[in-house]
């Protein structure tokens, strides 16, 4: 027999046995419907779940519509809100700041637009904030009050802290105070429309490990203050309009393993301090108008696997010492003005060299017979040079 007293309890009991639903007593507290091919607008009925602590609707791809302000005023107990990889659009309501218990907010991979809600600074329990791959505009608000995003909690997280914010201004709008707290390890501003310079305060992020500003329209030079970020392991600044000279700072960045500077307008000589990057595995500086000669001292790069210095204005010989780069897999020096003979010492790279691009230079004499020892070589280009046959 159903009564007014036990009827609702029974209804909740049935709901609590549904897939993805967890309850405490008669109240729904967890709802996990990730990757369930759900489509349509966000169900406004969810605002009735006033005790909801965890909501995961991620990876449904076809969930769309705007996020109603009423949702955020109703979910006072929410701790984890995971809505990434859907098609939610419109603005992020300022009422998001009412979810003061929120520890993880993941909205990446949607179609959200407009400014990032400044009320996010009320979420002082936040540990993970992921907003990348949307169409936010304007500036990132001051979130320095989110102390849980600081250095101590950062190392406990698996997820990288990245923002891809589409910016339609002519300057880099992010404040030093924001990044000094939040972005202590990972700073990703790549694939946007930034047209300013790389700010010198980047050097104050002494715990920075991964800096990516590639595929923008950044101008100016690489700031010498970057040398202070001595934990930096990855620096991607390719596909911009950065100019030279490149500062000799790399002796201060011993952990750098991936350095990509390609497709800029440096038009200067190659930095000799690269030789101190003994952990470097990839270095690309092609299509940059580089001048001068190749530093023989780069032979110290014993872990280097990819060296791309093609499509520049380099002259002189290809150093014989490069035969000592025993990890080198790809060597791209094509489309320069390199002269003299192709060094036979490259034949010592029998266990590593896979691609060797030498075309469109001014090499003379013959192809050294020692290159026949390169058992792993798959691609060898030497056309449009002056070489003939083998020794």
Automatic annotation (TrEMBL):
A single GO molecular function, which one?
kinase activity
Subcellular location as annotated: Cell membrane
Q: Which InterPro entries match?
A: Leu-rich_rpt, LRR_dom_sf
Q: Where does it primarily localize?
A: membrane
- Which GO CC terms are listed, alphabetically? plasma membrane
UniProt keywords (A-Z) are: Cell membrane, Kinase, Leucine-rich repeat, Membrane, Receptor, Repeat, Transferase
A Pfam family in this protein? LRR_1
Note the coiled coil stretches, chain numbering: none
Q: What top-level branch of life does the organism fall under?
A: Eukaryota
What this protein is called in its record is LRR receptor-like serine threonine-protein kinase At4g08850-like (Partial)
